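Ligand-bound model needed. magnesium ion.
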Amino acid sequence: MSPEGEIINNNRVFFHVDLDAFYASVEQIDHPEYRGKPVIVGAKPGSRGVVSTCSYEARKFGIKSAMPISKAYRLCPNGIYLPVRMKRYMEVSQAVMDILREYTPTFQQISIDEAFLDMTGTERLFGPPAETAKEIKQRVKEKTGLTLSIGIAPNRYLAKLASDYDKPDGLYIVRAEEAEKFVEKLELKDLWGVGKKTLEKLRQSNITTVKKLKATPKSTLVRLLGRAAAEYLYKAARGIDPGIHQTENKTHSISSEATFQRDLKDLSEIYRALFEISSQVMYRLLRENKRSKTVVLKIRYSDFTTLTVQKSLKHWVTSSDEVYKTAKELFSLKWNSTKPIRLLGIGLHNVESPTGIAQGELFQNDFNKMHKIEETIVKLKNKDSNIKITRASLLTKPGTSKPGRDNPG
Ligand code: TTP
Ligand code: MG
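Prediction:
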């Protein structure tokens, strides 16, 4: 059962807050010359990596998160392509979360750029929810320059759908009595927690809209999708919180890998790839609110021989830099420099959820710790010129990425 019970309770008020085009917006704030332009943050064009996110200007070209960067480049060859600067995004995220936390003791950060706020009963202190939401938007804008979208609803699930409904710079309220109508307006793919495979199975049974989903008996859904997914969808379609925190996939490992268009031999290129893969895998760990101590590196050579090597740390992995450092260490143990590399992958194994009821808070603590550690690393790096040189060579100069030879352009 969801934390707020199965019925939609008229008296509960939840905010879901989500920053707009987060990484890309930070780049536009830090570099005013990128404002109003298509900015794509992610892997280097020409590599086999993916788009992390892009500005709304770039979305007009059809670019989306997780799309291969080569496809993005084809859609928008004149875009500004930038590498992920995780440390900077975490710093900005922290500044935003600090503001949000002031509004409620039941604050729950669920990823780098989004949080739930239980605002039930705060009206006397802060005024009507919509006014409070406007104030939050204004304060975040003043402090960081960022815009965000807020959904307000009687449960977390609806609040999440509502923040997405009016993006960017949105504010959307779903009242208890309008909940079912609101969900009916959405496309099936917009229901949070409904993945591609589920959509495809539904489509095969001609269940293509929320209305049709609602009209499908639960027993049919169970037959099609199994009990857990059926229960989830049955509730979601009616605006009842299906228990979002149990829906995230229960994988025991999180990984990311890249096959290269051109086999890699050059160490600086290899390090650059490891750096990109590290930030992707760390992002996934954060997004799923999971933690892990074990880093696994996979190397596949051009002759297809493949090896994996792993290291377990004594503590939870706390930053993308740490993943990168460990991956590099593992790499140097196993690298056969005579053979070109076709694929590199990094996995975080034995992932688990922080235990206890206050997951959000724990996550927050981890997040603070991570932030401090990232800061310390940077300070150390500034002292150690060798490390500085290594890092500098990994960074692309903004806007100067060259397309790979397989990219038309
Ligand atoms: P999102 O909130 O999903 O996306 P967004 O903030 O860029 O855009 P929107 O306005 O639609 O909210 O994710 C937050 C950040 O997480 C995003 O800026 C980059 C990162 N991210 C990835 O690295 N890979 C991904 O596949 C996704 C979806 C996000
Ligand atoms: Mg966002």
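The radius of gyration is 22 Å.
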